[in-house]
């Protein structure tokens, strides 16, 4: 998560939605709290009094910001994130995990279907879990789409009044049609597991 006092935004970094590239773009405008162990512990326990120094993990969800920031800051700052077709995002995540043996989710030799079934059972892996507010609603003011990355990034930059630079695809591993990796059964199971984000954003397999 990135928070900017100057540009008044809260950026929720949803995994596998070009978030690393977007952080490169937004990071220079964001606060830079201490990442040390003491700072992390104090922030987690609510002991860091100045909200500007509170540490937020890279993939902190929106509800964490809602709970830890002053009410007026959370209310008035623009809350932004990018989302992606859930079926494509899941395959991209599998490719990333398989290419990163030290990753906690990596199991050597695990096929995509086994990985997918294990993965979608974890609520924290859903995009909806990242972007919903305390009331359970989609809490963002601006939602960009990975499928329209260049145009939506430009729109985000105009909204925040920051310079636009070229957006590379960090860690992009998928080059073929993601649908070829799915059985009909698995596609349906992903659709059921992540139905909230699919319904809200109108995604289709």
The CATH topology name reads Rossmann fold
Major sheet, described briefly? 4 strands, mixed
Biggest sheet, strands in spatial order?
A: 1-2-3-4
Structural class: alpha/beta
* Strand residues, percent: 5-15%
Question: Helices and strands, in N-to-C order?
Answer: EEHHHHEHHHEHHH
Overall number of strands = 4
Radius of gyration using CA atoms only: 17 Å
Residue ranges: pLDDT <50 for 5 or more in a row? Answer: none
Please report the first level of CATH classification, the CATH class: Alpha Beta
CATH architectural designation = 3-Layer(aba) Sandwich
Number of discrete domains: 1
How many helical stretches?
A: 10
Mean pLDDT: 90
Helix content: 40-55%
Walkthrough of the structure:
With 205 residues, the protein is of the alpha/beta class. The protein has one domain (2-201): Rossmann fold (3-Layer(aba) Sandwich). It has helices at residues 19-26, 37-44, 62-68, 71-76, 86-98, 112-120, 127-131, 149-160, 184-193, 195-201; strands at residues 2-4, 9-11, 78-83, 142-145. A four-stranded mixed beta sheet has the order 1-2-3-4. Helix 6 packs parallel to helix 9. The longest helix is centred in the middle third of the chain and has 13 residues, at 86-98. The chain is globular. The two termini are 29 Å apart.
């Amino acid at each position: 998560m990135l928070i900017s006092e100057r540009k008044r935004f809260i950026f929720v970094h949803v995994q596998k939605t070009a978030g690393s590239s977007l952080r490169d773009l937004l990071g220079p405008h964001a606060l830079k709290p201490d990442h040390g162990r003491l700072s992390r512990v104090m922030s987690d326990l609510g002991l860091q009094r100045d909200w500007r120094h509170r540490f937020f993990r890279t993939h902190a969800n929106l509800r964490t910001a809602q709970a830890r920031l002053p009410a007026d800051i959370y209310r008035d700052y623009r809350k932004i994130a990018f989302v992606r077709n859930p079926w494509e995002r899941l395959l991209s995540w599998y490719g990333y995990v398989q290419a990163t043996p030290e990753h906690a989710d990596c199991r050597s030799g695990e096929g995509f279907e086994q990985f997918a079934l294990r993965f979608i059972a974890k609520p924290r892996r859903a995009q909806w879990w990242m972007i919903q507010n305390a009331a359970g609603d989609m809490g963002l003011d601006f939602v960009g789409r990975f499928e329209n990355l260049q145009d939506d990034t430009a729109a985000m930059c105009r909204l925040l009044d920051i310079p636009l630079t070229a957006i590379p695809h960090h860690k992009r591993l998928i080059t073929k049609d993601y649908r070829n990796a799915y059985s009909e059964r698995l596609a349906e199971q992903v659709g059921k597991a992540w139905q909230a984000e699919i319904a809200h954003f109108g995604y289709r397999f």
